[in-house]
Fold:
Amino acid sequence: MPYPQLNERFQQIRRTTELICAPLTPEDMVVQVMVDASPPKWHLAHTTWFFETFLLKPYLPQYKEFNPDFNFLFNSYYESIGKRLQRTNRGNITRPSGAEVLEYRYYVNAHMLQLLDLELDKAVLDFLELGLQHEQQHQELLVTDLKYTLGTNPLFPVYMEKTYNQGAIIDQQWLPINEGVYTIGFSGEGFSFDNETPAHKVYLESYCLSNRLITNGEYIQFIEGKGYETSHFWLMEGWEWRKKEQVEAPLYWFKQDNTWFQYTLAGFQEVDILAPVTHISFYEAYAFAKWSGFRLPTEQEWEVASQLYPFSNHSVFAGSFLFHPQRETEFNLLGNCWQWCYSNYNPYPNYQQAEGALGEYNGKFMINQMVLRGGSCATPQSHIRNTYRNFFHPVKRWQFSGIRLAKSL
Ligand SMILES: [Fe+2]
Structure:
């Protein structure tokens, strides 16, 4: 076995995806409550399709495809791989059954282990690493998608009983950064997505970044201070969105007898005023920042601060499935909530899109989306970096997205 560590890591990551589904019912596995939230069964199959399409078919001699129809059903967005099911129809696939999808996973796993018994070129090993990182990305989407499905069920089902950190949070402080020329972007050893490269210089004016995320309690002050009803805190598009969608609080929040409650994966609970606010759109993050008298950081400011101040990776998603933002008892730049940046998702200077189908992984999404940094409680711990760039349209709220403020000096 030429790659024992890779072999072990492959099996561990594949198993983790299935473990996330363990508390779900067969019905939970199939539905697609909104277009963004893919069914768990689809995630299980699509991550398998990725290994089959990009590794087994081209690189394992005599590999026989499990089922040719699956290329249509489980291709997500790769135009160069052929025709595919419309995204809106992922919840309509009652066949193949869940059992057949698991059979597909085990078939592909067994063949992947055969592939790992061969001597492989660096290019194949790079694809394999991408396949593993892709599956970890989908683990986070699986969690946030199933939260949406359960959280919009009037019975508010409990996914997993958990207790949360009840500690005292750190005092809010401003971390100062002097004006200057800095280098951001990924370089060196290890994995990164192409959108994190190349490393390049940026000039920043002096600024400060907050040492902690905005809490639910602070966000309630914004709500009670008529933040949602005051147009001048909002970007025009955000204000129109808020009115049209009648948004008055974060996603999953409900007010009963003057108390705020929220759906969590541990069920319906009173909002913890010391925990970070999450499930808010870019527009809400922007309005909160404006109301507070501060602003959102740019992604360049966020990344340079991460180079200058020691921080912790707070994600507990490495064996423990505690999918809930935690009270911050130290400077947790990573692994609690994604942080909206006031940066469009654009290519870095001299960005090179990969050739072929994998060039479709990131580059084609570089329009009309905002960058988020830092990872969340649903991001696997080994999958987060300080150069990682996530991106969503400014109205999206189903990810664990929160607010870290900045200010100019
Ligand atoms: Fe994918």
Remarks:
- Residues 46, 76, 134, 138 surround fe (ii) ion (CB under 6 Å).
